[in-house]
């Protein structure tokens, strides 16, 4: 045993040898830097350079899906744990060895100043980062292979201009929500196919605190221990709720990022997802054209804003539309659309809330007003606008027609019952399960009537109802369609013929795969201009495709 223990002389000799070795390495590094090197940077070639990232499923898990989120650098693997009966989500990124990690740390420090200096040269951020990386590696005298160069370039861009560890998740089109609940806890995502899934991404205490501060800074907001909660919109349009420290979130800093599709969902998308039927969308279309006001209600993540954005594509092409939101979520392909968002006072100036924006909006003389969510004093002004001939769309947190009416009439909204009756339609949505899948469905579409003279209560009826047991929608009588028939001077058969034609239009667009919001809106506008002509053209295309 004594022979295995180092002596004092041996320890001193080892220390001298280590110092000599360190000095020699410094000399070699200095010589390399003086000598420099010349890289021949080219695009990454997976076949020649090999994969940058590798993944093998853990022993108790079975791989069931794999797809790129940032090819050829990062991809996602979905596994299924048989014992736990749950899915797992793995974000797979390039693997850096010790040398590459040290090199990355050094490059990240050295590249900051040149990057800031060279921004604004007209080159994209990624090009700037790659050029600086190439220059630095040549200056270091490092003979880096293309796998090393591209791996480091990926992490530089991810950390400087992307979203760091969460970047693969936010590049995944299947992800709707990203939730971090505290220090050293796995991040959870809501996946459109596998629902709530645990990921392999987590943050240490220092990492998470810095990350939350960075997210706030990226969106132009301030978060601190004294002011630890922030709701904001990130540069890519995602909505984020941030909490810093352990005072309000005891398990540590937290964030939830809610993503929105680059392409907003159209009525065709919602029909194909089963959220609404073709009959319901034709009904919305006819009502919106004839200036009927509408509220979408439902719980969190039931799809209220998505549906409101989709049916807004039915607004006639020349009508003036004005939207008011806390965070930017709506996306319309409409020539005469004025979008506005609220503003919280920072260092100077005044807060601009929904009430301020709505009062200002009425001076712009809009025909259609879209309000992100009704929850306070702005509701009175919104209903005043309805009473003076403006068509309004909005959303509200409520799970039934009765709850919507109750919330509107009581604190803190306090809309008088006589004004509530100016609302025409209520669509109540739900996030539920059908055939072992989580789905969004329009639970009911109601129509608001007048005040019952006998009871003093507000009358309402159901135009459509969802039957959970069969996953089908049932159509009932509609007083709004009767109103439209009277306004237009149509006979009953003329009303039904127009409804059938619009249903056929939506059916044809679905069959032809027309679901991009620009193309969809353009075809709706064509319908307004000459319905017979566009229907004839669509029928011909469908017949040709069928042949």
Automatic annotation (TrEMBL):
Span of domain PilB3-like C-terminal: 469-540
Cross-referenced Gene3D superfamilies: 3.30.450.380, P-loop containing nucleotide triphosphate hydrolases (3.40.50.300)
Residue ranges of domain PilB3-like N-terminal in the record: 23-94
Bacterial type II secretion system protein E domain residues: 222-442
Pfam families with a match to the protein in the record: PilB3_C, PilB3_N, T2SSE
Family according to the record: Belongs to the GSP E family.
Protein name: Type II/IV secretion system ATPase subunit
Source organism (scientific name): Halorubrum rubrum
């Amino acid at each position: 045993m004594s022979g295995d223990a180092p002596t004092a002389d041996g320890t001193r000799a080892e220390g001298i040898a280590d110092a000599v070795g360190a000095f020699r390495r410094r000399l070699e590094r200095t010589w390399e830097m003086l000598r420099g090197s010349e890289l021949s940077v080219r695009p990454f070639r997976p076949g020649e350079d090999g994969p940058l990232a590798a993944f093998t499923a853990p022993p108790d898990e079975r791989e069931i899906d794999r797809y790129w989120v940032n090819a050829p650098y990062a991809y996602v693997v979905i596994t299924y744990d048989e014992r736990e009966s749950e899915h797992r989500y793995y974000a797979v990124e390039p693997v850096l060895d010790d040398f590459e990690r040290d090199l990355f740390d050094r490059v990240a420090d050295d590249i900051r100043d040149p990057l800031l200096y060279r921004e604004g040269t007209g080159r994209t951020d990624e090009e700037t980062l790659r050029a600086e990386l190439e220059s630095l590696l040549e200056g270091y005298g490092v003979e880096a292979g293309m796998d090393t160069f591209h791996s480091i370039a990926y992490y530089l861009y991810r950390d400087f201009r992307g979203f760091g560890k969460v970047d693969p998740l936010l590049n995944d089109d299947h992800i709707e929500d990203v939730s971090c609940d505290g220090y050293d806890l796995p991040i959870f995502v809501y996946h459109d196919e596998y629902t709530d899934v645990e990921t392999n991404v987590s943050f240490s205490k220092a990492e998470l605190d810095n990350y939350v501060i960075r997210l706030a800074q990226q969106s132009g907001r301030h978060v601190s221990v004294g002011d630890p909660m922030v709701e904001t919109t990130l540069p890519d349009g995602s909505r984020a709720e941030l909490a810093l420290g352990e005072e309000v979130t005891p398990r540590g800093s937290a964030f939830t990022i809610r993503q929105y599709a680059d392409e907003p969902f159209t009525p065709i998308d919602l029909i194909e997802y089963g959220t609404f039927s073709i009959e319901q969308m034709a009904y919305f279309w006819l009502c919106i054209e004839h200036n009927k006001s509408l509220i979408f209600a439902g719980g969190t993540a039931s799809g209220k804003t998505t549906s409101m954005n989709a049916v807004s594509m039915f607004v006639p092409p020349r009508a003036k539309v004005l939207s008011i939101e806390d965070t930017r979520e709506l996306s319309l392909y409409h020539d005469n659309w004025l979008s506005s968002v609220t503003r919280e006072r920072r260092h100077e100036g005044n807060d601009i809330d929904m009430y301020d924006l709505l009062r200002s909006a009425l001076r712009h003389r809009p025909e259609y007003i879209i309000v992100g969510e009704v929850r306070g004093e702005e509701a009175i002004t919104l209903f005043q606008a309805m009473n003076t001939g403006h068509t309004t769309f909005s959303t509200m947190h409520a799970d039934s027609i009765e709850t919507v009416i109750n919330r509107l009439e009581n604190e803190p909204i306090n809309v008088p019952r006589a004004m509530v009756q100016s609302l025409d339609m209520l669509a109540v949505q739900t996030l539920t399960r059908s055939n072992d899948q989580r789905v969004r469905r329009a639970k009911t579409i109601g129509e608001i009537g007048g005040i019952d003279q006998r009871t003093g209560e507000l009358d309402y009826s159901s135009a459509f109802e969802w039957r959970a047991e069969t996953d089908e929608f049932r159509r009932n009588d509609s007083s709004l369609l009767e109103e439209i028939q009277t306004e237009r001077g149509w006979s009953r058969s003329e009303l039904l013929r127009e409804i059938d034609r619009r249903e056929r239009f939506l059916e044809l667009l679905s069959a032809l795969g027309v679901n991009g919001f620009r193309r969809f809106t353009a075809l709706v506008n064509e319908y307004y201009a000459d319905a017979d002509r566009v229907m004839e053209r669509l029928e011909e295309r469908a017949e040709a495709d069928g042949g």
